[in-house]
Every structure is written in structure tokens, then in C-alpha cells.
Prior knowledge:
The chain has 301 residues and is of the alpha+beta class. 33% of the residues lie in helices and 23% in strands. The protein contains seven helices and ten strands. α1 (42-54) packs antiparallel against α2 and α6 crosses α7 (260-273). It is globular.
Amino acid sequence: MKISTVYTKGIGERNEDAIVLNKEEDIFAVIDGATGLGGLSGAIAANIIKESLEQKSDLTLLERVKNGNAMLQQAVEQQYENISFEQIPKYKRSSCGISAIHIHRDATGNPAFLEYVSAGDCMLFLQFSDDSIRQVTYDHIDRLDLAVISKIETKWRTLEGTEPLETLSPERKKQKQTEFRQEEEELLRSNRNKLNTYEGYGIIDGDQKADQFLESGKIPLIAVKQILLISDGLKLHHHRDHPSQNTWIQSAEKAFTDGLQQLEQDIIKTEAADFACIYYPRLKQHDDKSGILLGLPSYGA
């Protein structure tokens, strides 16, 4: 298989994403660590799940992820003395989303089918021999983020009525961006507390309940020529005046056609030009970016 990757730090001090390239067992994954709000680093969760998928084992892909989730609970409890895991607020826990696959081969060594496990806003796409695209996973976090982003966007448009944005200094824009986000901390916390509930989204956070919210399945690789795994940092942004409901599919099309590196470059260019997240509304200037693009040899990729 032909493999290309992207693994780039965002605005944080470290990259809290992780990628798995377990070529010996044909296991691949992108893992998006999420730091607790005033709590533990998302890198804790991401690296524990990464380790669980890289260790050689006879366990299924789903069992490995569940084992990693159990290990995460132990690691989180060690960070908090004298309180049980259940007493740690959800919004403070180290957590991570995941899109992971295990490719199984036939007797001749050709890719035959894949198992997948998904949680959060890491995505899995397949491209077929006729260039059509299947989005396998669904981003349940997006609608919660949009609730916050829309409130911040309204604040920018209100400010624009009294202070034309083009007259604001970069420092003033950054100040207002920080201020607007801080004003929505309560909503951000409320959204985070919806993890692993039917009103929210599934995520790996060490709680045994997370196992119930993992999406998993098996897909025969019929006419599949490329497989794409990406974190939400590689999702294209839409302009505030031209909202799009298909940015995930657009991102996949870009990666399949032009490559992961070109997708990343296009996103970074947009983010650099709109450093205060005004015209391309989002929660931070640069998110961590992780992606894996696999070309299956049966189609000459």
C-alpha cells in the first residue's frame, strides 16, 4: 500500500493528536486528543489509545480500543488523588476521538475487508474505482461546536456595526476573539458534559460507558482504491457568508484528488489569513492536524 501522512501541531504547546501506523498488523488510526477544560491534557488519552493499537495482540480492533479506554481510566485516577474516577467532572477529563481501521487480507495477500472503530470527530472515508466517495463515520461534535461558533459569530457581526473590522488592529482582533470565547465557556463546558450521552456524542474518556458509544463495523473492500482517516483539524473551513453543509466531503475530495499535504496547506493558508477566526468561523486559529491516506495496490495506487 502507498501511505501518506500529515501530523502537524496547532496553536497549543504540543500536538495532542496521535497517529498509528502499525504496518505489521495493518492497523491505522488518527486519534484526536481533547484537553479537559481546566483539566487534563488530551495527549494522555491519545497516547494511551495509540499504545493499545501498536502493541501486537490477537484482540480485535474494538477490543483493543476498549482495553485502551480501561487503561485511560487508571491513568486519570492516578492524576487525581483521593477521589474516584466518577467524581471527576466530564469536562475536566482527558479524552480523545478516534478513527481506526484494521485491514484484513485474503489468502493471496490482497486487502479483502476492514474493521473500523470510530468516536468523536475523527473521520473515515472510502474512495472507489469510479472516484465516488463514501463517508463512513459521522461527526456528532460538529453541531455542538456550531452552537458556540454561531454565538461568537453574532458577537463579531454586532461589533462590526460599531467598529468596522478592517479598522481594528491585529491586537484588538485577538483580544476580542479571546474575550468572545471566554464569554461562551459555560456553553463549552455544557457541551463537554454531554460526552457519552444520547444528547451529545461518543468519545473515549476512560469511563466504561464510553464503550457503548463506540461505532464499529466491517466493510468489504469492494472496488475501494483509497482510504482516508483524518482528524477535524483537516476539515476545510467555510466563509461566514457562504456556509456549506458538505465541508467534510469537500475535505475528502481534496485529499483524494490532490493529496493530504495540499489539503493541509490550503487549510493553514486560510487559518493564517484569518487569525482571529472572523471570516472563517471556528473555535481556534490552528487545530492539531492528523491524517492518513492509504492507496490500495489492487488499483495501482
